[in-house]
Amino acid sequence: MFDRYEAGEQAILVHVDFADASTNEDIHELQMLVSSAGVNACEIITTSRAAPHAKYFLGSGKAEEIAAAVQAHEANVVIFNHALSPSQERNLESLCKCRVLDRTGLILDIFAQRARTHEGKLQVELAQLRHISTRLIRGWTHLERQKGGIGLRGPGETQLETDRRLLRGRIKTILKRLEKVAKQREQGRRSRQRNEIPTVSLVGYTNAGKSTLFNTITNANVYAADQLFATLDPTLRKIDIKDVGPAILADTVGFIRHLPHDLVAAFKATLQETQEADLLIHVVDFADDQNIDNMKQVNDVLAEIDADEIPQLIVCNKIDRMDSVEPHIDTDDEGKPLRVWVSAQEGLGIDLLQTALTQCLMQSMMTQTLKVPPADGKLRAVFHEYDCITEQSYDEQGQWLVTVRLPSSDWYQLDKRLDGALSQYSTTPPKPQHENDW
Predict the structure, then answer these.
(1) Which of 68, 137, 195, 436 yields a CA-CA distance of 20 to 30 A from 105?
(2) 216-227 mean pLDDT
(3) Could you tell me which of 56, 39, 144 has the C-alpha nearest to residue 93?
(4) How large is the average pLDDT for residues 325-353?
(5) Which residues are documented as binding site for GTP?
(6) Beta carbons within 8 Å of 173's beta carbon, 6+ residues apart
(7) How many whole angstroms separate alpha carbon 425 and alpha carbon 421?
(8) Binding-site residue set
């Protein structure tokens, strides 16, 4: 579609340090992104500037240095650790005589490699189309004219207008398909809400160990690797949490600093699992020196998708790479879990994580002792169906003394279903137990 140089595996990396530290990127992260994309970095060129240059993003002298490095290493792609404008990419390609990619283009390329499901491929294609729609003009500079010739004269579209129209049509088609996917996900969420099944969503910076933790908890076989954006397609699994019951655990795509807005918009259906979760497990690679900054970047993205108000449980992962750190739980003044220190790779602290999940998801519970006549076998069957019996015995008259414990919503719903039988057989008033009692 584009009249441009073909990308290859030999790359020159470019990193610029600006006076404003908030706009700077991490050069180590660029190297990891390039490695995840399967590209070999020949040389890294760094420089400092007060502000980007309008023509080349960096100075003309440094641009000439990049072009010389491309020729010396016979590289066929230059990758910037920053977002470039379409004109800057075009000017640099003309100077370097090779393909030029910015940070957004590199991330999109990695996403295109990782997409496995139909939904994931649609989301990546949507993000790519939105990205290249602003760069069409540089690919068709030789066709920015109206068609001519016999039968083609008169009012008509330029080639550029034709391409834009085709892009708009394809984007509209993808959005319709993704809308169907969103409706299907919404139906699944409504079903879980009706059954009062809580949803726990794994979030965190890319390569923090979310998929490894997901596999450890669920015994699943989700692809996990020590690379950025190893997970792209969301995966849901049912798990059982002690004293809470069934729950849904969702593994989601990792976040990264300055995540392209096109990606956030394209992955709206995927991120909906995070927005609708009852609890977020924020997985943090605490062996990484940038862990505090990475947490901030994740929270920024959560705020961008309106998920920053959802309760969080921080999981400090990869303690096996840290000195003298044992699995443990950090709690607040009320005993509520704040952080759990684990190693998903080695399976350390997973039992503590299960305990913390129980405490975080524990709803208001009802504990009650009932005296049930022998003739009421229906109530006995219902209690076994709800699996809520904690103690049971029989008195001298053969009446069943049973202690049950279940969510308050289930208690009142069941009492109504049994025409007040629970209240009739209760020996003591119901005692609600809140999560803070743990």
Answers:
(1) 68
(2) 69
(3) 56
(4) 90
(5) 204-211, 229-233, 251-254, 317-320, 343-345
(6) none
(7) 6
(8) 204-211, 229-233, 251-254, 317-320, 343-345
